[in-house]
Amino acid sequence: MHGFETKIRVRYEETDKMGVVYHAKYFHWFEVARIQLLDEIGLPYKSLEEDGYFLPVLDCAASFKIPARFDDRVSIISSAGFQSPLRLRIEYSVFLGSEKLAEGFTTHAFVCDQGKVVRPPEQFTKLLK
Q: Residues 6, 32: contact at Cβ < 8 Å?
């Protein structure tokens, strides 16, 4: 699948005493990118929820190569695909210009409002292909 770009300006509150972005903040950025990715493919998360679908995070990881710092303008490239018929995997790469700062992923399942795993909506599957 095509990667989608999300731009983030590093805020002061996202940095630690050493002046670099605190590692957990990258997961906030991943969520921002994930929501934008869903908007870009034409299935906003809000509309999925209105239709009774939710995407809890089952697994996540990140690896860090170069630190981001206050006021950096970073880009997050995200792409999604099915890891299995019931699991969605979204991959993220964080860049400052052409330098890759970090990469990571989140894995999700579609669940209904009762919390039971369900098949993704047919329209979602079509849009990812």
A: yes
